[in-house]
Amino acid sequence: MTGADRRFPVWAPGARSVDVVLGGLGTFPLTRVPASDANPAGGWWQLAEAPTFPAEPLDYGFVVDGDGPFPDPRSRRQPNGVHELSREFDPRARTWDDGAWEGRDLTGAVVYELHIGTFTPEGTLDAAAARLDHLIDLGVDTIELLPVNAFNGTHNWGYDGVLWYAVQEQYGGPEAYQRFVEVCHRRGVAVIQDVVYNHLGPSGNYLGKFGPYLGQGASTWGVNINLDGPLSDDVRRYILDNAEYWLREMHVDGLRLDAVHALQDHSATHLLEELAILADELAGETGRPRTLIAESDLNDPKLIRARSHHGYGLHAQWDDDVHHAIHANLSGEDTGYYGDFARPEALVKVFQRGFFHDGTWSSFRERHHGRPLDPDIPFTRLVVFSQDHDQIGNRAVGDRLTATLDPGRLAAAAALTLLGPFTPMLFMGEEWAATTPWQFFTSHPEPELGKATAEGRIAEFARMGWDPGVVPDPQDPETFRRSTLDWSEPERPENARMLDWYRTLTALRRTIPADAPATEVAYTDGVFRFRRGELLVEVSLSGTGLGEAPSDAVAAFDEAVRVTRR
Q1: Model pLDDT, residue 463
Q2: Separation in Å, CA 119 to CA 4, 124, 178
Q3: Which of 7, 140, 159, 372 would be a feasible disulfide site paired with 112, CB 3.0-4.6 Å?
């Protein structure tokens, strides 16, 4: 269903009866659609004939075998929350004003990750759009939105979504989302949407009432999705149609695929390969590139290897190894998964080879991990960062690097991220050394679920040495409020100075060919060096000690970083 299909089709293969409830109009029985060559398993229901209904959008839900009503699994809008009726929304009704946008290959671009609910005090898509001048002046090419799909409650990171097609109403709903994408494109900024296909949230998930959406086993975050079991074809179609919805109907330029290592799929053609084929077909059809970026901790180049070489053909993947090497060498932390990265040699290796764990022993996992990156895969296919929502939010108190690093080492982290050979990503507020934390927050209305979430989170990260006594309560509204950016900070002298440094680095990055590798990578006497194009970058890992910048330096930050053109 791509628009407002008033036959109200729904997949419920095991149901004996399905009715559609139309708010204020009554209940109408659906008829089972016969199986066909296109859909041999059948299982779909719809109105035999669509009556004449009022023209305005209708609220509706489904009763399955007398139970319900439940929201539409493909609901485009949930104005009253995920437990209530869906509301019709036709994305094709909009007359878009972004026709001049030709898109761009997002590998090598400067990406900015933000969470709509905490990026501004208002916490809406329209308020985020009003901050575009700041991002454009910063040098951002692409905005990556944390998940916006509908979840239970008023605030959440977004990874507890249960209706993957609907935009959370607190953010402004689907029309605000369209306005956001449109204004970004008019200003020359691409949009990547973070999507979660590996699990569903714990509250408001009614998909199991309709069919076998859930499979066997579970990950840390919930029960696995049925990608390769009986009747999984329609579950996969549900995901592929969702990807197409964002890429086609909502005009986004790419998707960040959450935790693809948690996808349990033993099909001959993996779901990730199918998603990559879909994205490439849409790019060919529309003339606008569509970029798929995988979050994965597997260090497996198969994800981004060409399909002609038996890979999945995704366009990029996150590389946590680079983060760990930057973080450990600047902060001195060596507990948990930082243990293998706490030497400068780790930083040298990731700049030379992309992955640190490329078949090496991982002390955190207590096994060998990863494999080497293919020599023909450019490092721009690796998305790197010194801070992101996970690496900050998965700390005990959600503290940013600002809480532990002096300005010199913060400047060093920025230079390593933005001038390195990878695709750099910044986390909202990083550019001015924001002091607001980014903590794990939830708003589950069910007290027992809130308690279980808090306890489970502490247990999940026990090996990182957290003190449970300092971990904020995710359900406390203050945890959410503390995590909202303070937009008065960029006006303060020290913050403004860091912001200017980030602007300098993004401008310098544009003078280097995007695919230029890092050469002459070395570490000597506390200084990490590399060359990209005509730029020689020198970074003091202690944040000081480089001495006064030479007269031919094109950029410098105290005695921590200097960049010369040679």
Answers
A1: 63
A2: 32, 9, 18
A3: 140
How would you classify the pairing of strands 44-46 and 31-32?
A: antiparallel
CB atoms under 10 Å from CB of 253, counted, come to 27
Q: Is 392 annotated as belonging to a binding site?
A: yes
Query: What is the band of 37 on the pLDDT scale with cuts at 50, 70, 90?
Result: confident
Domain end point (choices 287, 318, 349) = 318
Question: How much is the average pLDDT of 457-481?
Answer: 81
pLDDT in tens, 174-227: 999 999 999 999 999 999 999 999 999 988 999 999 999 998 877 777 789 999
Round to whole Å and give the CA distance between 57 and 284: 33
Find out whether 435 and 487 touch, Cβ atoms under 8 Å.
Answer: no
Q: Provide the greatest CA pair distance for the chain.
A: 80
Does 393 carry a binding-site annotation?
yes
473: annotated active-site residue: no
What integer pLDDT is reported at residue 2 of this predicted model?
40
Q: Is 5 flagged in the annotation as binding?
A: no
**Looking at the domain assignment, is residue 32 inside a domain?**
yes
Query: C-alpha distances in angstroms, 482 versus 116, 436, 471, 474, 535?
Result: 15, 6, 13, 11, 39
Q: Do 114 and 210 reside in the same domain of the chain? A: yes
Number of domains in the chain: 3
C-alpha dist (Å) from residue 6 to 45, 50, 388: 12, 6, 42
Q: Which of 160, 249, 295, 340 is catalytic?
A: 295
- What's the rounded Cα separation, in Å, for the pair 255 and 257? 6
The answer to whether residue 444 sits within a structural domain is no
Angle at 165 between CA 160 and CA 35, to 5 degrees: 115
Residues 278-333 pLDDT 10s: 999 999 999 999 999 999 999 999 999 999 999 999 999 999 999 999 999 999 99
* Domain limit, last residue, from 287, 302, 318: 318
Does 470 show up as a binding residue in the annotation? no
Q: Is 258 a catalytic residue?
A: yes
Average pLDDT of span 71-75: 98
Per the residue annotation, which of 258, 388, 430, 489 is the catalytic one?
Answer: 258
Whether residue 395 is contained in a domain is answered as: no
Query: What is this structure's pTM?
Result: 0.96
pLDDT in tens, 508-520: 999 999 999 999 9
Q: Is 310 annotated as a binding residue?
A: no
